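Suppose you are handed a protein chain with no further information: no name, no annotation, nothing but its sequence. What can you learn? This example shows the usual starting point.
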Amino acid sequence: MDVAKKIGLSDAAVRRRIKNLEKDGTITKFTIEVSEPKLTSAITYVSVSPSNPTSEVSRKIMSVKGVETIYETTGPFDIAAIISGADIAEVNKSVEEIRRISGVLNTNTTIVLRTLR
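A reasonable first move is to predict its three-dimensional structure. Written in structure tokens, the prediction is:
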């Protein structure tokens, strides 16, 4: 048992102490924390042809693997798509698929370097 080694006690002593902590209600449950997988994320800004409804292009983009969220925006771009993948190559595949969608005039992609929460 790693805990026993780290604190210099026997496995039996650690188990007994844990059991006593459970009995007196100090420990009520055990959980496992799983870290989030390391993903590469990007924001792809999309210009839509005036002859195509933005909502239709948005729906098509949403069906692309790796696209997590779509924002229809004002300003120089009509759509901002949040994309995640295992690596840059996977994100790039998603961007390439977006570029092939009818009505997409132009894209501009930025890779996310860090996320603060």
